[in-house]
Amino acid sequence: MPDPQAKRRVFSGIQPTGNLHLGNYLGAIRRWVDGQGEKENFICVVDLHAVTIYQDPDDLRDQTRRLMAFLLASGIDPDRTTLFVQSHVRAHAEGAWLLNCVTPVGWLERMVQYKMKSALQESVLTGLMTYPVLQAADILLYSAHEVPVGEDQKQHIELARDIAQRFNQHYGDDTLVVPEPMIAKAGARIMALDDPTAKMSKSAASKRGHAVGMADPDDEIRYALRRAVTDSGRDIVFSDDPEKAGVNNLLTIYQVVTRKTPEETVADFADARGYGDLKNAVADVVVEALAPIRERYEQLMGDPAELDRLMAIGADHARSVAEPKVAEMKEKMGFIVPADLRPGG
Ligand code: TYM
């Protein structure tokens, strides 16, 4: 029986690849920070997901540390969130294998991100296809009820729901919690500054003017926002008109960063003389929001022993939740689970 007193669990993850950008921050990281407290939070740096596309080994180690430091600098509090690195908890790989064996290949072939990413590869690695199964394992091993993500991850979370339901049908109704994607009303899909019809993405974020990078100096942030593609009009309002996608994106960034309502946001620009004013105002609020994060990030990167210590604490706690769950799944599937690996054993 589920414990009615138990806190709801939240799980989310982020890959240590490419350039962390404002979309990651507004669509995911800041929401994880805001949600700390009333729920039990697990945030994972998903290095096993990163290698579904070749990564230089030294680069991967470096990026994993940098991402840990960024998450801490952004306000992830290790006293209120279990922050850990995925490969430090072996149960993720083991759980993914078990779930591979309940997931039809057809479900994976339908994944939009798989189609997009595989189209860019000369040779597609098996891991790229089974990537969403590992993601399902991440979530299901922690019995997470809620998964706060940006819009682009919705399909993966829906797949995790299908996988959980299929496992439960085959092996026992209440084994796996069926999670819910939690997608913000505003900021779930921050668009590219150089092309507001495409989402801001880590892989393209090294292209100057595409994104606001979380590590970018103030003048680079201002450069990217001032060059943001808009339209030939002057109206600073939210609109469904595809022509206005650039202005919508800038207004959304302003709204989410300042935590204002859409009405307050538009009212702030009632006296603006044109898009130049909008871009300057967005640059001001973004620079102000990111500068202290960058400063804390630099401090944390200067103390690798502290980062190691925090990684170890997070992984210990994550293991204490994930290992018994994987043992329970194995028992349900008919594996002989040695006494010391049994849940509660
Ligand atoms: P990743 O690393 O691509 O992105 C991390 C988070 O940032 C969000 N995001 C955005 N939000 C708004 N606007 C954008 N332009 C934007 N770009 C990215 C993503 O939606 C995500 O929430 N597969 C996942 C990582 C993962 C995971 C998990 C997530 C692995 N296991 C379990 C949740 C639960 C990924 O590659 O995210």
Tell me about this structure.
This protein has 345 residues and is mainly alpha-helical. It has two domains: 9-184 and 304-341, Rossmann fold (3-Layer(aba) Sandwich); 218-300, Orthogonal Bundle (Tyrosyl-Transfer RNA Synthetase), CATH 1.10.240.10. Helix content is 52%, strand content 7%. The chain has a three-stranded parallel beta sheet with strand order 1-2-3. The model has no long low-confidence stretch (mean pLDDT 95). Bound molecules: tryptophanyl-5'AMP. Residues 11-15, 23-24, 27-28, 46, 49, 135, 138-139, 147, 149-150, 152-153, 156, 188-190, 199-200 line the site of tryptophanyl-5'AMP (TYM).
Q: What order do the SSEs take from the amino end to the carboxyl end, as H and E? A: EHEHHEHHHHEHEHHHHH
Give me the count of strands. 5
- In whole angstroms, the N-to-C terminal distance is 19 Å
DSSP helix fraction? 40-55%
Which CATH architecture of the largest domain is right? 3-Layer(aba) Sandwich
How is the CATH topology of the largest domain named? Rossmann fold
CATH level 4 superfamily of the largest domain: HUPs
Radius of gyration (CA) equals 21 Å
What average pLDDT do the residues reach?
Answer: 95
